[in-house]
Amino acid sequence: MISALIEQTKKTAPVVVGLDPILDFIPAHIIEKAYDEYGESLAAAGEALWQFNKEIIDHVHDLIPAVKPQIAMYESFGIEGLKAFAKTCAYSKEKGLLVIGDVKRGDIGSSAFAYAIGHLGKVQIGTNCISAFQEDFITVNPYLGSDGVKPFIEVAKEEGKGIFVLVKTSNPGSGEFQDQILNTTNESKTPLYELVAQKVAEWGAEAGEDDENSYGYNPVGAVVAATYPEQARRLRKIMPQTYFLVPGYGVQGGKAADLTHFFNADGLGAIVNSSRGIIAAHQSERYQEFGNALFATAARTAVEDMIKDIKGVL
17: part of which helix (H) or strand (E)? Predict the structure, then answer.
């Protein structure tokens, strides 16, 4: 699947749209229509999320290789929200997009395999083998160690898919754990996130490449935030064959000028995500002329501006 991501990125841009909707982002005309049909209910909320996502996908699918729906925004509305998540993933696939499920799962044994099968694999129901969400990649939390990551790698390899392991995240509090210095036997000081990066490189090497179109990259990627460019410089050296999923651009403070170290000399190696900066563009001062009625056009314009911004420094 990393081969497909690379090929689609080369045709478009190293940009991912995060589909992280909340009701406050959704124009009133969409919400009111959902209320008319379902009342003020969870079902109405799920319908509003789906219709909002659908229109954005329709307007941006030709510009980007992938979308990244954050499952928490859907789970908050229970089963109805998860229905919207499933519809969003399926429709994105119909429009030719890859889907990165931002699910941040992490567990061990049968639980890890169940999560992996639910999001990357297929579940056997009688004589049918069915994919629940149709994601191509998911994010994985490595806190439980190899026992909590390898089940995801195993299922991903079986299905020809991939994962992105959390290494250095964009939140200000990430340093509470990730930046802690480990006790070492030499004079070098190694923060925890670098040890995780070393393991990601090791897991990736064990997994191997998809095929000759992988350009040397493997299906075990890393989440490395745009808000920490100096750390990215070091992490790129530790993980030269690892694809980076880069959150934190735009609203969270990451700038295009900071992204050069995330990419390799071949111009590959990273995809940059923006969520609120795209899907809520119509609420920002920069794109206010579009208004609620043209929210998806505002999103498309924001994607075009992001692509121009990033390509300008690469």
Answer: strand 15-17
Work out the number of other CB atoms within 10 angstroms of the CB of residue 210: 21
d(CA 108, CA 113): 8
Place 140 in a pLDDT band, splitting at 50, 70 and 90.
very high
Q: Is 104 a catalytic residue?
A: yes
- Decide if 176 contacts 138 (C-beta within 8 A): no
* Residue 37 contacts residue 44 (beta carbons within 8 Å): yes
123-125 vs 128-130, strand pairing mode: antiparallel
Handedness of CA 233, 235, 241, 247 (dihedral sign): negative
Could you tell me the fold of the domain covering 2-313?
TIM Barrel (3.20.20)
CB-CB contact of 313 with 256 (8 Å): yes
Give the C-alpha separation, 26 to 282, whole Å: 10
Catalytic residue, from 33, 54, 104, 255: name it.
104
Provide the sign of the torsion angle of the four alpha carbons 61, 169, 214, 119, taken in this order.
negative
Please report the pLDDT score of residue 1 as a whole number. Answer: 86
Where are the domains positioned within the chain? Answer: 2-313
The CA distance from 109 to 240, in Å, is 30
The DSSP output letter for 71 is: T
Which of 71-85, 167-181, 275-289 has the weakest average pLDDT? Answer: 167-181
Sign of CA dihedral 111, 161, 144, 165: negative
Measured CA to CA, the distance from residue 209 to residue 167 in angstroms comes to 20
| pTM of the model as a whole | 0.95
